[in-house]
Amino acid sequence: MRKKVVAGNWKCNTTLQEGVDLAKAVNNVVNEKGADDVVVVLGTPFTHITKAIENVDTKRIGVSAQNCAAEAKGAFTGEVSAAMIKSTGAEYVILGHSERREYYGETSETLNKKLALSLENGLTPIYCCGEPLEIREAGNQKEYVIKQLKETIFNLSADEFGKIIVAYEPIWAIGTGKTATTEQAQEMHKDIRDSIADQFGEEVANNTSILYGGSCNPKNANELFANPDVDGGLIGGASLKADDFIQIINAY
Ligand code: PGA
């Protein structure tokens, strides 16, 4: 059965010390309360990964990078490879976030390279998809998102796909305070799951965790997570406040 996952995406926020404090605060509560039925992931900046791992119980909390290089290694100044990330003890990598696609020109072609390298190195990709506002307003969100999947993760083998976590993040909801309604989230998650079933079969589809992202917070997490096809969240802003993030973890 698929796992419930609550993953934080810290983006370009926190100094090292602030990040360590945040990781410790989340760790304390997760250790006290159990939260055994939810996989908790902290998506920290590269610079914080090693320290975050030192300060959490990695049996209960996984640490994620937010990107990786599209090349295995070599003369690519400033890049961080999937193998480097894996060597820190991190288990996950967020790929295809709309901010990377929009501000850093990430295409499906780049993402296919990153997906392959992440999987080769034993990292679990948290693959993001989602439509911009004008596509939603035109009612073309399903076609748009399924095309993103077809150009990338649907090229994987069923075995490889089984290692992926999908995050549906409507761009108009990211950091805007405007959340998808529970109906909008469920409808798209169901469409994504159905298309996975068409591509890889029912079993793979039923085992895939599909997270919702976009202004998820302690007030709306409960309602969003109650949808049958919403298996957790990728949390930006609210993952930077330990109390809010913990309330979201406890929304299950
Ligand atoms: P948000 O970001 O929760 O701040 O909207 C979500 C994300 O971009 O992953």
Q: Residue-averaged pLDDT, rounded?
A: 96
The number of domains: 1
Number of helices: 12
Structural class determined from secondary elements: alpha/beta
The CATH top-level class label: Alpha Beta
Each distinct ligand: 2-phosphoglycolic acid
Question: Per the principal axes of the C-alpha atoms, what is the gross shape?
Answer: globular
How would a crystallographer describe the biggest sheet? Answer: 8 strands, parallel, barrel
The CATH superfamily appears as Aldolase class I
Secondary-structure arrangement, i.e. CATH architecture:
Alpha-Beta Barrel
Amino- and carboxy-terminal Cα gap:
16 Å
Task: Describe the fold and architecture.
- The protein has 252 residues and is an alpha/beta fold.
- It has one domain (4-249): TIM Barrel.
- The chain contains twelve helices and eight strands.
- The chain has helices at 16-33, 49-54, 82-88, 98-103, 108-120, 133-137, 141-151, 158-161, 182-200, 202-207, 221-225, 242-249; strands at 4-9, 38-43, 61-65, 92-95, 124-129, 165-168, 210-213, 232-235.
- Strands 1-2-3-4-5-6-7-8 form an eight-stranded parallel beta barrel, surrounded by six helices.
- β1 (4-9), α1 and β2 (38-43) form a beta-alpha-beta unit.
- α7 runs parallel beside α9.
- The chain binds 2-phosphoglycolic acid.
- 2-phosphoglycolic acid binds next to β8.
- 2-phosphoglycolic acid is lined by residues 9, 169, 174-175, 213-216, 234-238.
